[in-house]
Amino acid sequence: MDSSSKCNNIANALRKLKRYDEARAEIERAIECYRPFGIAVETWKSFDILHDIEIADGNQQAARAAWAQARQAYLAYRQQGGYPSQGNGGKIVEHILGLLSQQKSTEVNALIHQLGNDPNASESLKKLMQAVLTILSGSRDPALADDPALDYDDAAEILFLIARLEP
Description:
The chain is mainly alpha-helical and 167 residues long. The protein is 70% helix and 0% strand.
């Protein structure tokens, strides 16, 4: 697994040098090395690096596929009890669920609107808050997690939230 981590680092360095074919080969090597270990080795990070490589190389379709794989790997991690470890999105969703369990819907709405309108919030966090509001209003549409403006981990949090709220 240590060599896979090195492949991640090498792939990132090669991407920054715009040596995309070599970067892609390195990250694909890391993904293959990680495959037998499942979520224990955070494969979503390698898929995210592949996404960045494909974006930089102008391969939108391949970038989208890598993003979807990162989202799926991170979702599997969360579904198997993993903690929200990436950005703030997962932690915020967990906080919102905690407030809801305490029947503090006024605080939930205030938090969602505050974060959704914060000029310093990332575009992904704003989209996540819009999706959470839509979900809390009754939607269970998994397409909410398909917005390309979402980071893969925020998109996974949307799917995880939907799954936890379904009867």
